[in-house]
């Protein structure tokens, strides 16, 4: 069966996560660099991942999609709009590319643009925010390139690897995104 391509770009497409993706998702949670970049501190069992995937399928306040390479249909990461607030028209976005050798190729940038287009153009959101840790300079660069603006710093919000790290709050508004689309 041909994979579902929910949102499609030139290099990647986004598709719903399925129970068949459990082992891939589970393994990605234990990639050392991905854990650091996302600030993941907890360990998870395979059974917890199954429950998480099943729960996301029923959760109307989030959209969890896998980032898949167009050339070989291989998952390389995931992206989610979460805490969707339909009254105030805002949400949080998160993204992870699970392998160092898949980073720096524009996959994350394209996936972000696909999800922002969906959030603003289909879900009718007004504001999308994210948090990024101060040591993740590559991600900060990508977010600013896509149009996110820094709003503030949550000082020493993450304790990771024996040290405290700042969390940077960034957001993009609907009109800012639309003005970037025209360029």
TrEMBL record:
Q: Does the keyword Transferase apply?
A: yes
Known CDD domains for this protein? Answer: NAT_SF (cd04301)
Q: Which Pfam families match?
A: Acetyltransf_3 (PF13302)
One annotated GO molecular function? acyltransferase activity, transferring groups other than amino-acyl groups
Q: Which residues form the N-acetyltransferase domain?
A: 12-175
InterPro entries in the cross-refs: Acyl_CoA_acyltransferase, GNAT_dom
Task: Name the keywords, alphabetized.
Answer: Transferase
> Which PROSITE patterns did the record assign?
GNAT
Keyword Ribonucleoprotein listed: no
Q: Report the protein name in the record.
A: GNAT family N-acetyltransferase
